[in-house]
């Protein structure tokens, strides 16, 4: 499977250089030229590694790294002209996996990329809990107030997606792409039907709902709508 790398870099020449070099090294490379664009790509797609500049328009690298670490453990390599020790320390303390200063050698960059990718993906959280609902990925078991909830594989995957992004509104298109690996047309009701069936098992037997509809936007799971 092709490794996907996202480069978030506002210097066009540097971004093009990285795109060309990493693509020739066999990676699938995407580029975002500002922090907000990078945030959107990271929210919508899966990447195996993120190469991130610090000084970015819209949202700087520190802020984008904090956003990433609040949700995922994707390896992040900071690539920046900020070479002071305090900047390196800050980047690492915020959760960066490596820090390379510009100007850089492509050979060194490639070696660091390969090292980060060899570490493999971090172990995913195996237990999730919201209120009186719990989800155990290892035992493939959902429980609420101590009672087992019997789910189909798709229902379990849908609940996992919702609970792993607690209090985050997920669009129907995003849910469809993650669960069915397809981009459904906006008028389809496949997601609505799946949510309705999941609610019948997860919410209906109990007084407090956890799966909420956000009108015009999508669905979320949390204690508060």
TrEMBL record:
GO terms for biological process: regulation of DNA-templated transcription. The modification 4-aspartylphosphate is found at residue 53. The keyword Transmembrane does not apply. The keyword Zinc does not apply. It comes from Kushneria avicenniae. This is Two component heavy metal response transcriptional regulator, winged helix family. Residues 125-223 form the OmpR/PhoB-type domain. Residues 125-223 bind DNA. GO terms for cellular component: cytosol; protein-DNA complex.
